[in-house]
Amino acid sequence: MTSRRLTRILLLTLLLCRLLCAEARPQDSRAAAQRPPAADDADVRRGSLIAKAGFSNEDHVRDKLNDWMADPDAQAWLKAMNYSPAEIRKVRAEKPHGQKADVVVHITMNSGQKQTQGISIKLVSGESGFNQVDKRWLKSYAEMWNMPLPVIRAMKFYVGEDAPSRPSRRPDRMYLDELPDESRAAVVQFFTKNKRRVVEDLFAGDGPQPPQWFMVTQNTEDSQRWTLRELNEVVNFYAEGHVVVTRAGNLKIGRVSMQRKGGDNGRETANMLQFKINPVLLLDAP
Question: What is the spatial distance between Cα 133 and Cα 210, in angstroms, rounded to a whole number?
Fold first, then answer.
């Protein structure tokens, strides 16, 4: 190939690249104009579109808060927590260890006042899904809630700490609907009487610094949503409803599900007690 022919090919390639770039710019501008605006106060209550690609984990939430001056989602979260971004001097978010809060936010106001807010975060990938809110040994819950002895005895059969006392669907444990009527009634009565306290402890924990806020983020193929609510409001929402034994033999405490952990290849930890919620319900709550 001669040098003259090579030069022509290079010039044509350069010209073609410029034409393609010129056509792409208007499209990029139109796409940018179609991006959703930052969430307003009403959107914060019911969930809003997440900028860009949604959240992958709690680190992402922390990082967005640390970049609050340039991040519209972080500014909307601060508004949801009753802060005016114009009155904020500094925000520092971090992930604590051994706390119920997944992210702790330290806020310094222009006045010099400093406040700390803890946020518990639940991430949902898909249209729905159940997330664990708490998991412990039965003994820990019994001490925390001062369970009566008849309830403890019934719960030991349920989690498998005691072998079944009568025929059951599993050789290693009993479901609540397999317990004697008086034992099952004792369990339902206890959780009915203490429902508000139980749900509050599940969300807030028993540590010295409970979270003040609860966030749910949902990532699907079509959209991303989030909502940020005061913990007291979240507790009221999930405590709403009756305490009933389900058809599967577990317990429903309002909108909270109680079940034996199971799994773990038969290890002792399978006998732990766990509580789950469907966080998506909160996204559509008024």
Answer: 13
Could you tell me which of 98, 103, 105 has the C-alpha nearest to residue 121?
103
- Tell me which DSSP letter residue 205 carries: -
Dump pLDDT digits (tens) for 178-231. Answer: 999 999 999 999 999 999 999 999 999 887 789 999 999 888 777 788 999 999
Q: Beta-carbon neighbour count of residue 58 at 10 Å?
A: 20
3-state DSSP of 141-153: HHHHHCCCHHHHH
Q: Report how far apart, in Å, the C-alpha atoms of 225 and of each of 105, 228, 280 are.
A: 21, 11, 10
Distance CA 224, CA 124 (A): 10
Identify the three-state secondary structure at position 121.
strand
Exposure letters 134-164 (e unless 16+ CB within 10 A, then b): bebbbeebbeeeebeeebbbbbbbbbbbeeb
The amino acid present at 45, given as its one-letter code, is R
Distance CA 39, CA 12 (A): 47
pTM of the model: 0.78
CA torsion, ordered 68, 74, 75, 78, to nearest 10 deg: -110
3-state DSSP assignment of residue 117: strand
Q: Which residues contact 249 (CB under 8 A, 6 or more apart)?
A: 169, 175, 176, 177, 178
Please report which helix (H) or strand (E) contains residue 214, including its range.
Answer: strand 213-219
Residue 113 is encoded by which pair of tokens? 């006042």
